[in-house]
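Trying the structure run again after the queue cleared.
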Amino acid sequence: MGVVLPVLFALLAAFSNALATVLQRRAALSVPQTQGFRPGLVLDLLRRPVWIGGMLAVVVAGVAQAVALATGPLSLVQPLFVLELPLALLLASLMTGRHMSHVMWLAVGAVVVGLGVALASAAPGGGEADVPLDRWVPALVACAVAAVLLTAAGLKRPVGKARAGCLGAATAVCYALTAALMKDSMRVLDTDGLVGFLTTWQTYGFAAAGVGAVLLLEHAMQGGPLVASQPALTLGDAAVSLLLGVVLYQEDVRAGWWVVPQLIGVAMIVMGVLTLARRGIDLRTGQ
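Done. Tokens:
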């Protein structure tokens, strides 16, 4: 199977998620901050049209992501979501009327080039379509434990970088797990039709993980600055997704001397993401 279709739909999903991030953060910053885990936060946000617009963008992103995962490997599709951060900052810049600095543009270039180098040298592909339950169980337990521990650690801290970073990392784990479960449910939809899709546990698993990710994301956005939450979310999602692709779906990634350009690409991505998050435009004030 070619890579053009999954890449195109992954890019559409990344753009839609970036738009959702901008709209959701503007909405999240318009409600009173909370010190604890408050499910009622979503009820407050439902009264804000900008948040509803963000959720519609999430739906578009989810459909595009499902198509991308159905036609391409998890270890190829999910790392492309690293582009969400530069896309979100570009959209924020347009919405606030503020121009990005030369340093910011260089950081965007570093993320794009680094991602291209890393994926081209890794050449993720192959893998198995059907994941047996004995591989799912330890993966589900590991992701659940990681998400709970990171959430608990974040909620114990006051509003600030540590809180936002922990909640952002927990969100990343949930997003990666959502993608892994979604990929398997798309396989069931293709082989067993709508009835099979609606009766398989993976469908309800990715729905539950997705809802948890959205709720965690809202608290991460309120928990502190983007410089802490966004790198944890962006880099964490790509890293955990790559790991799940290799462990669950047995997808192939080049080894040997190819690791060198992969590490160079990853280093460029990390530096670019950190720079964008540190110098990024505030989605509420434009500063």
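The two ends are 44 Å apart (CA to CA). Worth checking whether this holds up in the mutant runs.
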